[in-house]
Amino acid sequence: MSRRVRRKVARKGKEKVVLQSYPEIEDEVLDLERQEDVDWTSLPDDTVIQLFSCLNYRDRASLSSTCKTWRGLGISPCLWSSLDLRAHKCDAAMAASLALRCVNLQKLRFRGAESADAIIHLQARNLREISGDYCRKITDATLSVIVARHEALESLQLGPDFCERISSDAIKAIAVCCPKLKKLRLSGIRDVHGDAINALAKHCSNLTDIGFIDCLNVDEMALGNVISVRFLSVAGTSNMKWGVVSHLWHKLPNLTGLDVSRTDIGPTAVSRLLSSSQSLKVLCALNCPVLEEDSSFSANKNKGKLLLALFTEIFKGIASLFVDTTNKGKNVFLDWRNSKNKDKNLDEIMNWLEWILSHTLLRIAESNQHGLDDFWLKQGAALLLSLMQSSQEDVQERAATGLATFVVIDDENASIDGGRAEAVMRDGGIRLLLDLAKSWREGLQSEAAKAIANLSVNANVAKAVAEEGGINILAGLARSMNRLVAEEAAGGLWNLSVGEEHKGAIAEAGGVKALVDLIFKWSTGGEGVLERAAGALANLAADDKCSTEVAVAGGVHALVMLARNCKFDGVQEQAARALANLAAHGDSNSNNAAVGQEAGALEALVQLTRSPNEGVRQEAAGALWNLSFDDRNREAIAAAGGVEALV
Fold it and tell me: pTM, whole model, 2 decimals?
């Protein structure tokens, strides 16, 4: 296998200031010639703090360690108003070590149950926003402790993966402990009972944004009691009683936006909600089969009300929200973001639309449904590209993940839809993704690199990525200390290295050394990054010149180490393939002998020929076959018991 694409699959079970993207990986190295040394400590404090703000947390810590003055500036409150722990293993000890910096922490993003347990040790009593993913193992007890310690909380979001161990008891605790709550979005809860929703209505008078997404059961009648709600999403939620919904929810006095996407709502309920609600402005019903199957349904009956569905013109519909008729076509989101005439109510609607559209489009892409080609080519791809330019970081990430996902037809066979991939390219998506990959935010780097990797399976897109400078960017990301970023970057180099015309460019960009270093850096506990790095090296090793660079960079030792020690089939297969390609150049270089002389190489390959995995066996046998053309290797292979594998 020479390519790898990855689908991110979900299994069912206050204001934010975003800085401009600052490149961590520069396209050029500036040659600054100075006649005298620069005293960096003489820089004004404001300049140093601005420099800190352009770095990720790891680099901030490194910079802070250089001197006492910068150590003090490095813990300035303005640098620690938000914290993203998703790329880090955060336990109680790590959280306690950060506590001094987190006194004024306002926003926190975390990943997984262990990090959730550690949140209270940050002692960030002034937290306003908490957002978590990979929440499948988070329990009622953990969530209850978190909200009890953070009474000032205004926003709580857990998802998009399913919160299988959270129940209505935790929702009641949220209601009692967080009276200032304005936004609550939870995914994959089994049952959201009426008493929990009524507790929210009683205690959280400022709660304007509610999302019970991909839940099994939600009490529709109780939701009708939350009179403060302006934006409500029950997307993907099963067992909804739409008759009850249509008779009750239209009475909610402030309901402005309603998201019922990916549900079984029908035309009758949609029509009643649109015609009866005095406050409703937007009803989003994307991917609702019952509604879509009714060919007689008209989306234009209710003037002043916007219905978004797969069969409507989404960009045109959103443009109708604006008085200014110049907000038309695919630039409607961009025109809104750049508008000087701000309307608070409209801004809230647009921010909500960005969030629910990014979530729903990703879910639709993950489901890989048939019959949606027309939607993706005409609207879906353009929507994702537009959302990728959002000021909301989580929207940007989901849009990039959506692009990485919707092009994949068959993950196992590394197949993508060429038409969809080229649609992204035609609409300027490659440049947007590469710009996102240069952000200092590692979450954006990771998702953008994943999208670039998957799109690059298409030869035309791969050519565009190379022409736009993408190889240098990916080679730089492959050096990241963040494993997730490095893994996706290695995947991009793997797919780009399929093309003969890109191999030399990867080597010139330092990609060979970066890939070899990845193997040593993540030799344990990183099978994803190891498989991608070994796969890319295998492709590069098929080129005579690049194969020499692989050997010079220490690639022989790295690949033999994987063949000997790694227990994952995918890694073993790619390591064996790389060794086979290194040994395939005959007398043109000395790699054949170098592989044979590497301690344990032949024994490891012989052992892999006995693997239960057919791909591993074939690649190991191919490596031994190539190595056997050297007389010394042939004798060593026989001594190691490899004759049977070759026969």
Answer: 0.88
